[in-house]
Design goal:
Helix 6 crosses helix 9. The longest helix is centred in the C-terminal third of the chain and has 22 residues. Strand 2, helix 1 and strand 3 form a beta-alpha-beta unit. This protein folds into two domains: 200 residues, Alpha-Beta Complex (Spore Coat Polysaccharide Biosynthesis Protein SpsA, Chain A), CATH 3.90.550; 85 residues, no CATH class. The protein has 289 residues and is an alpha/beta fold. It has nine helices and ten strands. The protein is globular. The chain is 33% helix and 15% strand. The strands form two sheets. A seven-stranded mixed beta sheet has the order 1-4-3-2-5-8-7, with helices on both faces. Strands 6-10-9 form a three-stranded mixed beta sheet.
Length: 289
Amino acid sequence: MAWRLLRPSFQATFLQDADLMKRAYVTTLCNGEGYLPGVEALGKSLEAHGTTVPRVVLVTADVSEETRRRLSKQGWQIRTVEPLENPNPRTVHLFERFSNVFTKLRAWEVVDLDKIVLLDADVITLQNIDDLFERPSLSAAPDFFLPDRFNSGVMVIEPSAEMFQRMVDALFETPSYDGGDQGFLNTFFSDWYAMDVSHRLPAGYNLQNFIFQFLQGHPSLQAALRREAKVIHYSVQKPWQAKASFTGGSQEWWKAYFGAHPEKASEWKRRWHAMEDWTFDHAVAAIIK
C-alpha cells in the first residue's frame, strides 16, 4: 500500500506571484465535504482580521467542482492532493473523521512555500495571527489534555520533501496514541517539548472552545481573554454538525460562518446560538458552585 503514497500528490490550480506564495495559511478538505462549513468559517475569520497572506486548501478527489468553485470565490486557492490512508484502521470505526486525517501531512509537500501555518478545518481565528509566520518550525501549542505534547490543530511548519518522505516511511511503523495524526506527529517529533521555548505557542493560539466559553463566562477574565485568545478549536463538537451545541463558543463560530453565508443569518438564529453559550455558562456555574 505504501507505494501509492509516493506518487505526485498535488496539482496547483492557480498561478500566484512567487513572493506572495512564500507563505500561506493551509487547511485540508478530504473524505467528502463534511468539513466544508468549517473551511468556510475559517476563511472568513482569517479575512475578517485583516490578513493578506494567501489561503490554500488541500482537497481530495471526492470534493466536487461546485465546492471548489465556491471556496475559490471565497478567496481560497485550491490544490488537489491524494489522500493518505490511516495506518490505524480500527480508529476509523471509533471516529469517522480519522479515515483521512493523515492527508494533512501533504502540507509538507508544498515546497514552493517557505513557511505554512497549518490549521485544522474546525478552528476559527479571533485576531490576526500573521505573527505566527515568525515562529520556527515546528511550532505548536500544548495540548489541553496532555500539556507535554502539542495539539496538531495549529502548527507552523516549513515544507520539505525530505521530511515528508521520512513521515511516509515512518507512517505504518509509528504508534499513534490517539489513532490520528496528532498522536503520530507527537511520536515523530518526540523532541518538541525539549525544543527552545520559541517552538511552544501560547495556549491562546489553540484554545479549546469549552475553555474559551468557561473564560468568557467570568467577567473578571474577559479582558485577558480578549487580549490573549487568538484561535478557538472545536475539537470535540463541531457547531455545524450538531442540532444544538452546548460545549461553548457557538456564537463566535456562527458569526464567522455567517460572514461566508450572510443569506443564512437571522436574528432568531443569533439568539439561539447565544442561548447555547448561555446554557454552557450556567451548567458550568452549577457544577462548580
